[in-house]
Amino acid sequence: MRVPLNWLADYVDLPAETDPHALAAEFAAVGLEEEDFFGPEITGPLVVGRVLELVKEEHSNGKTVNWCRVDVGPEHNEAQDDPKDPQPGPEVPSRGIICGAHNFVPGDLIVACLPGAVLPGDFKIAARKTYGHKSDGMICSAKELGLGEDHDGIIVLKNLGLSGEPGDDAIALLGLDQVTLDVNVTPDRGYQLSMRGIAREYAQMKGQSFTDIGSPTVAEVNAPTDDGFPVVIEDSNPINGVVGCDQFTALQVTGLDPAATTPFWMQRRLIAAGMRPISLTVDVTNYVMLELGQPLHAYDTALLGEEIVVRRAQAGEKLTTLDGVERTLDPEDLLITDRGGKGGKIIGLAGVMGGADVEVGETTTDVVIEAAHFDPISIARTARRHKLSSEASRRFERGVDPLLGPVAARRCADLLVELAGGTLSPATTQVGQAPEPTVIELPVKRVDSLVGVDYTTAEVTGLLEGIGAGIEVIGKDRLAVTVPSWRTDITADVDLIEEVARTGGYDRIPSIQPAARAGQGMTEAQRTRRRISNLLAADGFTEVLSYPFTNDKRDDQLRLEADDVRRKHVRLANPMSEDLPLMRTTLLLTLVDLVVRNQGRGAKDVALFEAGLVSTSAGLPEGPGPRHLPGYHPSDDELEAIYASVPHQPYHYAGIISGNAEMPGVWGKGRKAEATDVIDTVRRIAETNGLEVTVEADQIAPWHPGRAAKFVLADGQTLGHAGELHPKACENLGLPARTVAFEIDLDALLAQEDLRAWDGALSTYPVSRQDVALIVDADLPAQTLAATLREGAGEELELLETFDLYTGDQLPAGKKSLAFRLTFRAPDRTLKADEASAMREAATKLAAERHGAEVRS
């Protein structure tokens, strides 16, 4: 919110010598942080001048200029020594200035910028020879002084309603010495988007009395009549049970002078506040909005139908707004329309921007002034849906005082009558009722306990009365606080306590480091993530982070099947890049990009891992879920529908090794990464977390069909996959051949019972080891055979290791030999060789029964 300090001084006692920077610091103490300063941009002599004589000269370039004699006051006039220059008389000193504008005549008071002055944009003025004369300065237009966009002619003071004498300081006369402070208004304090709101904050801060210019109790308002302009509210689609428009005030002003222009003082204030003057009627509505905080709209009565109708849009309806853009409307959009007579059209996007069909123009003489109160949620959604943030929508979506409409409408009408000579009709429309004031009970001791400052009851009462609240003492140290109508953000006692802390000064709140609350340390999920990350880092992996956005093309590059659940992406409504509109369903979709980038930077041996969330739309209900959260605490059914529409987001770990797994050096030639490297990595991740996994051969993209493994947990869940990436996938992605990768689901791992918790006792007796080699089918996984041996060996089996794999001519076709070492230990005795052999034979017997295994001699 831009706050011109000379405008602020109309409502509070603001000393002329106020330091803007000190004022900004004081505002920051009550939550209004300074964003910027807009101060004087003109230095040097800028004075009032009177045109004494004007000679038109035509030049060979086809341009006609005026050679002027300008009286700029005794301090600035200089005698002219150019013999070609016309002489107004020896008793009237003056300066000679060339000017290309033609909207002035001799005798007019103008604004002259003399040599040595600097205009906005670091435009330095100096005397110079031009068009055969020495031009000793410049006659200024509004644009050159930063007073607007008008550059068709120079400033003539009488046209601005100003007067003065030659030599007067034009900087002060035009208000170019004023400072504007730009403050940051937080979204919950919409009332601060007005001079009324800022003035109230200043008065509270300085302990001054404040006369509320926007309260119905101090401002003159029109009583509603039966003959006001007809207005009907037809909200057939209320959002969360709240109608989009609960109040609508309309006043009529007739007989306006179409030629009336906005006075300079109003234009100056609008420009200083960051708005562009347009026309008198529009400027008045904007001025009142900036002054009071109530957005207004004026319609040309001659272009309106017989009545105004407030309703929701119908699907497919279109509206051309005042910015000239045709917009396709949504059924949630709230509209201002008319019907009857010349009606039947959309005349505005409620609370956001008016339509072009009933725009006030150069011939408008009669207007209807609208001052309505709209639902903040409805306006916010419409503004965002159409990417149309306006000054009006910024205020409505933050909450406008529901009592302000009649006051603002009357203030606007009075200004139009004063400045354009119109007549205010007594016919007044007022539809809807203002809400009852909110009353909140506040224990004073609760203020002390939450803020940490020992406030007295009188101090709390004074601070809350300063924000406009009504106070009633209802018991010892208990107050009944009537919330002011413009403070829609105050709904509970904690909000009142926040106001006490804010207006009482944040600097009074002590800075005390709170004692650390006793806790349990990291959660089990955090400890697990740390274990896995430490293991991978110790193995030479480097942790990286990639953006979680992808596209359908990446699914094709990884050769995912058409019905693969990993193709069910969540599509972003507003993606950071149009090329990446989807959320990843696996980490490998985005991790491969970082591998390729490192390879492109010359890192030929890369081992990267990433931990993060993935998203999938698989399992979501058909159709979209709730599009918007309600403006109140949802019911259980609403919460269930909301949560059901949220995509599943499991936490994954993924890693890729490209190039060497063991680096070459004086110790050897090194070794390329193989599928067994990442398979062993996943096995050790499970082992580190006290879990047993079953390793099975699998065929799943993007892995090589003969060099990929699936890891199955004890409860049947799939932990993940690991192996060598498919050669075609490597080719599609630009990865080196034989690149290996793994990806696991951490959520599935965390759902398992940690087998490291053991309540037994370590045996002190020696072990007994037995070796056995078994001939089995070549396609039988070693993990499956090992599980059978472990089951058959019994409880005394302490360790089972696979130490040899043989395939060769000494075995039948389609067979392989797997050698195992079985380590037995009893908890209460030393096992005899016969006992250990018997347990080994029991294990091999079960393997023979289930898998046709034969003992290899």
Describe this structure in words.
Tetramer of two alpha and two beta subunits. Its main location: cytoplasm. By secondary structure, this protein is an alpha+beta fold. It has 21 helices and 41 strands. It has a seven-stranded mixed beta sheet, sandwiched between helices. Strand 3 and strand 4 (64-71) form a beta hairpin. The protein is elongated and about 130 Å long. The model has no long low-confidence stretch (mean pLDDT 89).
Rg result: 41 Å
How far do the termini sit from each other?
Answer: 91 Å
Percent of residues in helices: 10-25%
* Contiguous uncertain segments of 5+ residues: none
Question: Helix/strand/pairing class, anyone?
Answer: alpha+beta
Mean pLDDT: 89
- Beta-strand percent range: 25-35%
Query: Which sheet architecture does the biggest sheet show?
Result: 7 strands, mixed
Shape descriptor reads: elongated
Number of strands: 41
Total of DSSP H or I helical runs spanning 4+ residues: 21
Strand order of the largest sheet: 27-30-31-37-36-35-34
Keywords: Aminoacyl-tRNA synthetase, ATP-binding, Cytoplasm, Ligase, Magnesium, Metal-binding, Nucleotide-binding, Protein biosynthesis, RNA-binding, tRNA-binding
Organism: Brevibacterium picturae
Protein name: Phenylalanine--tRNA ligase beta subunit
Subcellular location: Cytoplasm
